[in-house]
């Protein structure tokens, strides 16, 4: 189950999920949106805004993640699976968390 | 190796074998697995069961028709409920349901119930076959991931959108209002339309405007003519009053 993938959303500022529900390639993006709203993942960061942009213009499904340090991750979900997208986001979040911890360790002593 | 104890005629004494073949003293029926005696193994192998072969090999007979699995009663009941929903309600909105805390769900259901809108949780594997056989085939791609249906016999779209705006975890995907499939944008445009009575009044007013102008249009020519003739008459009268006034003083001057 995709909810087993632990994603720590602390370094994330906002997530915008854009998809067109009448298209057939929006399935993995919709499941990603459902997983992101899980209470375990939402509990890691209450300030993270998750917005869903529902359109009907035949555009590709898109996930736009804005991080707190200004970085941006854009995932085009038309040919990606939910688990791939979750692991990609999770790995980036973990990397940023490690960087933050190292910075705070350097500052503290 | 059995060592013979005794002397010349052991069979006279009724000898007991000195070595006995019981090493550890386990009995015939044990709790642990015990290997069969070799003779017993041979007996079991010889007397093994051999299944009787059919006279006609099965591949020569006609193939059996596989019976289609019937759905159990619960699935049939859910299907009937879904068909009823689509038949009885004018407005059916499909929304994606992301996990929400329970109290929020209850509150949302309460607010929607005030406007006579019911919330129904649906399972994709039940609703997909129902839709594929009905006329709502174009709603099929919407039913992926967790969905809910907001159904109502009236079309109170504005109130529904207002409630959904307060709930960020539910995303409106599309709706089927009066057998017309609308996207999210279409639903928002539908909400902005005036009510049916107001539109009917506007249509009647627009249609009645033209006939009301027809009578004045038809009469315009003759009204214009009568106005012109009236003006002409008044001018002639003015001229007559002017000209008798002139000869009258002329006559009076001649008379003098």
Automatic annotation (TrEMBL), chain A:
This is Large ribosomal subunit protein mL53. Its main location: mitochondrion. It is found in: Mitochondrion. GO terms for cellular component: mitochondrion; ribonucleoprotein complex; ribosome. Belongs to the mitochondrion-specific ribosomal protein mL53 family. The keyword Ribosomal protein applies. Keywords: Mitochondrion, Ribonucleoprotein, Ribosomal protein, Transit peptide. The keyword Ribosomal protein applies. InterPro entries: mtLSU_mL53, Ribosomal_mL53.
UniProtKB/TrEMBL annotation, chain B:
Belongs to the universal ribosomal protein uL10 family. GO terms for cellular component: mitochondrial inner membrane; mitochondrial large ribosomal subunit. Pfam families: Ribosomal_L10. This is Large ribosomal subunit protein uL10m. Keywords: Mitochondrion, Ribonucleoprotein, Ribosomal protein, Transit peptide. CDD domains: Ribosomal_L10 (cd05797). The keyword Ribonucleoprotein applies. It is found in: Mitochondrion. It comes from Grus japonensis (Japanese crane).
